[in-house]
Amino acid sequence: MTGALRVVIADDQTSVREGLVLLLDGLPDIEVVGSASDGEQALRVVAEQRPDAILLDLRMPVLDGIGAARRLTAEHPDVAIVVLTTYIDEHLVLDALRAGARSYITKDADRTDIARALHAAAGGLVVVDPRVNDTLLAAVSPVLAPAAVPPDGLTQRETEILALIARGHTNNEIAGELYLSIHTVKTHVNRIFAKTGSRDRAAAICYARDHRIA
């Protein structure tokens, strides 16, 4: 894709919507071409502007995000749908993905994470917030075998990152592979060090090998 990614933002909260417009429109590789306060309005704006992607809230009046996603998928299949919400309930996540959303992130994501998710979705990839991913894993695997449970309170995402560390990946390489911001990766790495009692990456690698995380 050449040029800036053309994006529509749909959120019923004026302050959130306007904040997202300012936040993302200030990035050189994103152009916000429209905004909407409900699902029906979002459909009209998409039809008028033909964006590459839409950042879609779930809880909206008139037509909610799930209903809007279904219609967008049917009427504008080339528009990548990225859900941005405060909710991580597994039923909502699954409903959104089934409705056609390519990515699902939460509103505590920073603008780098949001931009990365938009670009990834427009490129046909899927980005799911780490907490959402953990919720989905818990939903589809309510009873894990003891050996499958990550040790020392590590989340599935932290275990995944620890495995990449053990394979010699740098933070930048991990960010690129998992479509996360470097800040998010560093936060996960610090939590991994704290939970595993590792002073540095070498100690974390030893921990990973001892626990067969690779």
Task: Please explain how this structure is put together.
The structure is a single chain. The protein is an alpha/beta fold and 214 residues long. The protein folds into two domains: 5-136, 3-Layer(aba) Sandwich (Rossmann fold), CATH 3.40.50; 146-210, Winged helix-like DNA-binding domain superfamily/Winged helix DNA-binding domain (Arc Repressor Mutant, subunit A, Orthogonal Bundle), CATH 1.10.10. The protein has helices at residues 14-25, 39-49, 65-75, 90-99, 111-122, 130-140, 156-166, 171-178, 182-196, 201-210, and strands at 5-10, 30-36, 53-56, 80-85, 103-106, 127-128. A six-stranded parallel beta sheet has the order 2-1-3-4-5-6, with helices on both faces. Strand 5 (103-106), helix 5 (111-122) and strand 6 (127-128) form a beta-alpha-beta unit. The radius of gyration is 19 Å and the shape is elongated. The two termini are 35 Å apart. Mean pLDDT is 87; it is low at 140-147.
